[in-house]
Amino acid sequence: MTRWSSVPEALDTAGDPRGPRTASRLLDLLVSHTPDDEPSPEEAAAVAGAVAEVDRRWLVTLGEDPAHPLDAIEAATAACRAWRTLTGTSLLPLRYAAVELCGPLGTPEEAVPALRSARLDTFGAPDIHAALATARLHDDDTGAVRTAAAVSGPAAQDPLLLSGVLLAHLAQGQRVEAEDALMRLTLSDVPGVLAARVRGDVTGYLALSGQWQRGLALLRHAAPPEPAAATPWSVLQQAVGTGQLLAEAVRHGHGAQALGVDILLAGAGQQLKVSSWDTLGHAHEDVTAFARALAASFDMRNGSTGVGSRVERRLSATAGALGPRAYGTVTAAVADRRVLANQARLLARTREVLVTASGYGVDSVREQAMTTAEEVSQSLALVVDESQLETVVELRLAFARLLVLLGAGERAARECEGTTELCLSQGWMELALASTAIGADAARDCGSTARSERAWEQAAGLVRSWGVPRTRERLTVLADAIGSAATGARAMTLIAEHLTRLLTDEPAEAASDAAQEALSRARAQLVRSREPDTGLSARLEAVAASLAGPVAGPTQP
Questions:
Q1: pLDDT tens, 17-72?
Q2: Of 65, 71, 63, 66, which Cα lies nearest the Cα of 100?
Q3: Cα 254 from chain centroid?
Q4: Which of 5, 9, 166, 319 has the fewest Cβ atoms surrounding its Cβ within 10 A?
Q5: CA 516 remoteness from chain centre
Q6: How far apart are the C-alpha atoms of 326 and 321, rounded to whole Å?
C-alpha cells in the first residue's frame, strides 16, 4: 500500500500530467487508492506542495478523456481543493481549470461567467490558456488575438497559444500575422502530448485559408502525432482539422485522388486507420465519421450534446465561412475611461449593489455586481487621483466587500492588506480597522483560516491604540465601512474590551461612557447578525461584568 511519505515522489516521477496515462496514474494515487491513515503535518505539507504543481493540468486532462466519469472529475477537484486549503495555497488555478474544462465537458455557456469570476480574483493579467479557451469556444477572434498580443517573453512561444490564434488572425484578415504564428510554431518544439491538438489547429487553418494542397503535403511528409500520447480530446481536434482539410480537397474536385499516406486515429475506444491507397473522398467520410463517434462519447459522458454540436459546426465550415464569425470581447470587459475616472459615481453604484444584495441576495443582482466589480477593478488600476484619496479608500473597501459577495475572497484579502497600509499612512484608524476585519472575513470565506486569524490578531493590535474621544462617531464610521453585522460585532467587541481595560488604570467617566457605547453597539450588531454566535455573547457579558466591577477582562483577537 502507498504511504503518504512516498506520494510526493510518485507525483514527481509520474510524468507529464497532460498525458492520459499519467492522468490515470494520478487519479489512482490521489483519489482511488489513497493511504488509510492520516498524514502527519510534514507529510501533508509535502503532498499538498506536490499536488499544487500538477493539479490544474491534471484536472483538465481528466476531463479530456470520456472514460473518466463526471463524479471522478468532481472527486479529483475536491481532493485538490482540500490539499490547497490545507496549506493556504491559492485556489485560483483550480478556477482556471474549470474554465478550460468547459470545452470537453460540453458547457461552453459556463466558460464566460467562470472566466469573469476568476479574473476578479486575479492580480494582473488573467490566465492565458483559460482566456484563449473561452475565446475559441465562442469564436471570439478579437479576444483570442488580444490574449496572444498581451503575451511576451518565452510564454509567447507556447505551441497552444501559437496554434490557437491561427484562425482568429485569419478571420480578422490578418493573414501575415497568421503565417508568422505558423512559422514560429513550425520552428518550435511541440511536446508529444500536445502534437495532436496542434496538428488539428494547423490543418484546420490550412483548410480554411485555402491552402489545402499545403495541408495534404503536411499529412504526407510530416511525422504523425503519436495517438497514445494524446488525450481523446486532442485526438478529436486532430480529426476535426483533418476532416476540414479533406473536405476542402474534395470540394475542389480531388476526391478521386489517392490519399498518399496512412492516417491512424485512436481514442476513447474508437479507432480508425485509413490506408494511403484510399481516395481522398473515402478518407474524408471515414475521418468525419470517426470525429462524430468520438464526440458522441463525450456527449454520453456529459449527458448533453455540447461537444457534438460544436464538432458538427466545425466540420461544416468552409474557407469562405469565417466572415460571420463573432467579433465580440467575451474574454474581457472594457469600460469607458470617463466611467473609470468618476470614482465617486462608482462608489455610489457599488454601495447600491451591496445594499440590494444584502436585502435580496447577490443572485438578484449578480450581473450588475459583476459589471460593477470589473469597472471598479479597472478604475483602481488605471486611475490615481491623490486629491480624492478618501474616496479611493472608501471605494477600495466597498470593492473588497463586493469581491467577497462574488466569491473572490483571495483577491479581497489581498486588496484589504494594501488598503490597511494606506489607511495607516493617513492615520485613518477606523478605516484601517474596517479593512483588516473585511480582509479577515475574506480569508475565512476562501478557506484560509490561519490567514483569517492573523488578520484578527492584527485588528486586535490596531484596537490597542483606539482612544476614548468621539467614540460614537468613530463606531458609526467603522460600522458603515464594514457593512457586515457579524464582522462589525466582532470588531466592536475588541474595542469594548480595550476600552474596559483602560478603566483599570485610570477610571474616568469619559472612558466608562465610551466603553458602554462600544458594548451597546456591539450587542446591537450581534442581534442583527445572521451568522452563528462564535462566543461573542460570552465576551460581551464579560465586558458588561467588568464595567460593573473593578476588574476588566482580557482582550482577545
A1: 999 999 999 999 999 988 888 899 899 999 999 999 999 999 999 999 999 999 99
A2: 63
A3: 47
A4: 9
A5: 45
A6: 12
- Do 354 and 402 meet the contact criterion of CB atoms below 8 Å apart? yes
pTM above 0.85, yes or no: yes
Q: What value, to the nearest 5°, has the Cα angle with vertex 83 and ends 54 and 530?
A: 135
Nine cell digits for residue 392: 479611493
Q: Which residues contact 249 (CB under 8 A, 6 or more apart)?
A: 212, 216, 255, 257, 280, 284
Rounded CA-CA distance 483/188 in Å is 53
Q: How far apart are CA 322 and CA 470, in angstroms?
A: 67
* CA gap 167, 150 in Å, rounded: 18
Contact status, residue 221 vs residue 190, Cβ threshold 8 Å: no
Per-residue pLDDT reduced to its tens digit, 392-413 = 999 999 999 999 999 999 999 9
Alpha helices in 303-387 (DSSP H): 306-315, 337-341, 343-360, 366-382
- Residue 202 near residue 241, CB atoms below 8 Å: yes
CB 258 within 8 A of CB 277: yes
Which residues share a beta bridge with 274?
A: 263
Percent of all residues in the chain with a pLDDT value above 90, rounded to a whole number: 73
CA distance 204 to 330: 23
